[in-house]
Sequence to fold (161 residues):
Amino acid sequence: MHQATIKRLTREEVDTNTQLLIEFVALFTAKNHQELMKLFHPKGRFFNIPARATLDGYFFEVLKTRYGVSQHFCMGVNYGYTADHMPGQHVVEFRFMDFDPFTHPEADPTKNLAKQLGEPGDDDLKELVYRYALTFKDGKIFTLRHPLRFIDNLEYFTLEN
Fold:
C-alpha cells in the first residue's frame, strides 16, 4: 500500500526562501543581470526548459536590451500565488513604465499609477508587465515560469480545504 506524505517546510527553509524572493525582486528591479543569475539552481527548470543558458539569454534580453526594461522605471511590484495547474507557487509581478515624474502630474493628474496584481498595462505610459511564478530548492530558485492564473492571497485555498 502506498502512503502519501506531505513535506512541510522548516522555519529555516521559509526564512531562506523569503530572503531569496526579496533578493530576486531587488536584483530584477535594479536590472542587475550578473547577480540575478547567481540566484538560480544549476539543475532547475526555467520556462519548462532544463537549461540555464536559455534563462541567461532571456534575462539579458529583458534587462539589458532596448526592447526590454532598460529605459523604463520600476513603478511597482505585486505579489500573489498561482491558481492554475500548479497552484500555490509564489507570483511576482513587476511593472515598468516610461514615466517622467516631473511632467506626469501636469499631463493627467487623475491617472492612477498604483496597479493591482493582474491589471493590464497602461499603453499611455508604455507600461511593461512581467509576471513570474517561482519555486525554491536548496536555497536557490528551482523553477521559473509565466503563471496562467493567479490570485493575490491564499484565502481561496484555505476556504476550500
Observations:
- The first strand starts at residue 40 and ends at 46.
